[in-house]
């Protein structure tokens, strides 16, 4: 019973469902508002090391060679999880995991007219926006010279907002070292 109470308390603190209002991180920043006013968060996947039985290790082998679970997360701009789907093997493609999350009866729900930011691995579909392909994207690429056109400016701002999910995964893996450790 004590463990259940602790889990429920953690759920209330760490997981928050997005609402229809524009997040203050966007609303109060002229770089993002009004351009991203309907954005409710960021989608991304991360690999978590996993100890898997030999018979099913193939599905969990990541492109880096280890056995991992590919975990999909939707994160709000105040660094809270709004959705998590774990259990997919490390070899599963991000877009396949997202399709599964959207098709589940209690899966990821995206409010009408709202969207998440996602990386190019998710393709193009309603409910999330990916950056322009073949155009500078990562923040370090703009260090020497700023954006030269509207697509680069969009990608720079997209990247500036999407970095939120990388921060959350970094914090989580630093706090719970077992998520980033080699399986034993």
Describe this structure in words.
- This is DDE Tnp4 domain-containing protein.
- By secondary structure, the chain is of the alpha/beta class.
- The protein has one domain (about 20-180).
- It is built from 5 helices and 5 strands; from the N terminus they run ααβαββαββα.
- It has a 5-stranded mixed β-sheet, sandwiched between helices.
- Strand 2 and strand 3 (about 80-90) form a beta hairpin.
- It starts with a helix and ends in a 9-residue tail after the last helix.
Q: Report strand %.
A: 15-25%
Global shape = globular
Number of helices: 5
Q: Termini, distance in Å?
A: 30 Å
Class from secondary-structure proportions: alpha/beta
- Contiguous low-pLDDT stretches (5 residues minimum) are none
Round the mean pLDDT to the nearest integer and report it. 82
Oligomer: single chain
Largest sheet: 5 strands, mixed
**Any idea how many domains?**
1
Gyration radius, to the nearest Å? 18 Å
Strand line-up of the largest beta sheet: 3-2-1-4-5
Can you count the beta strands? Answer: 5
């Amino acid at each position: 019973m004590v463990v259940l109470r602790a889990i429920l308390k953690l759920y209330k603190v760490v997981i928050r469902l997005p609402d229809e209002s524009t997040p203050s991180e966007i609303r109060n920043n002229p770089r993002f508002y009004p351009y991203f006013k309907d954005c409710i968060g960021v989608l991304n996947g991360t690999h978590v090391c996993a100890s898997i039985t030999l018979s099913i290790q193939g599905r969990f082998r990541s492109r880096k060679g280890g056995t991992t679970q590919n975990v999909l997360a939707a994160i709000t701009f105040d660094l809270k999880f709004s959705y998590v789907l774990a259990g997919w093997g490390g070899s599963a493609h991000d877009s396949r995991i997202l399709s599964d999350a959207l098709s589940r009866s209690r899966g990821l729900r995206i409010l009408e007219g709202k969207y998440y930011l996602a990386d190019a691995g998710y393709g193009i579909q309603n409910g999330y926006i990916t950056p322009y392909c073949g155009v500078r994207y990562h923040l370090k690429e703009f260090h020497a010279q700023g954006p030269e056109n509207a697509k680069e400016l969009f990608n720079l701002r997209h990247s500036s907002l999407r970095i939120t999910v990388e921060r959350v995964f970094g914090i989580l893996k630093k706090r719970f070292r077992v998520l980033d450790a080699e399986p034993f």
